[in-house]
Amino acid sequence: MVYSGGYVVSIATKDFNGHWQFVKERADGIVSLAMGQEYAVYLRNKTSKGVLAQIFIDGENVSGEGYILRAGDSFHIMRYNKQDKAFKLVAHDSSEAKEKGKGYVSEGTRGVVEVRFYPEREVKIPPVSVMPIVPVNPSPWDNKWPINPYPIKHIYPMTHNSKRHYVSKGGAISAGCDFAPEINSITLNSLSDGVTVGGESTGQKFSKDTIDVEDEYISVVLTLKGDYNKMPTQPQSQFCAKCGARRKRKNSKFCDLCGQRL
Fold it and tell me: pLDDT band at residue 19, thresholds of 50, 70 and 90?
């Protein structure tokens, strides 16, 4: 896991049982995955206020307007924002990369995963002025009671412009997620450049929310490399790759909705 300014980024994969495990990065920020491995970008906000996170993979914005993480939130982002396709690492010169339009990625951006964290803007409310109320025509009996000051209430409209962003709900993970096991990233010179393409359907859904954020951001960068010595760990898909319908029975070989082979 990489920490910066109270924000956490890590790469996670699922084992054959469908359990998340974090892939430990090297000191230089390189994370090795098996070619053909599907993965997720794990985000956590450890600060006391909200943040907007934007994810860039291979120089491409894969998160749309971004994901909102409130204080203490953590998510696994498993898919592209605009389509339900899992993040999948393949060789940069493979036919799959070329077919899916990723054969053009320049050497400097291959495998680069950058997360930009925009902290929530603090709304500063001016102090409320306090004025004593003095009787207009004081009478003798008015002096029997002290003059009490009453605060004058001011209503300050929210004049800042709040933009609409995406927030992950279905992708939220439990509070104990940080204790998932870590697997070491290989340190041998058997790593190759890879790019990320769309994989299988994930079933992860997003809902909309709003947040007003600062203009400056904190950037966290990791670099994915492919290792041909590793075998991808892909749990059994619970969704149809064609229509996205959920598998109703564990041993189903065909989708009950569209007939696609599972």
Answer: confident
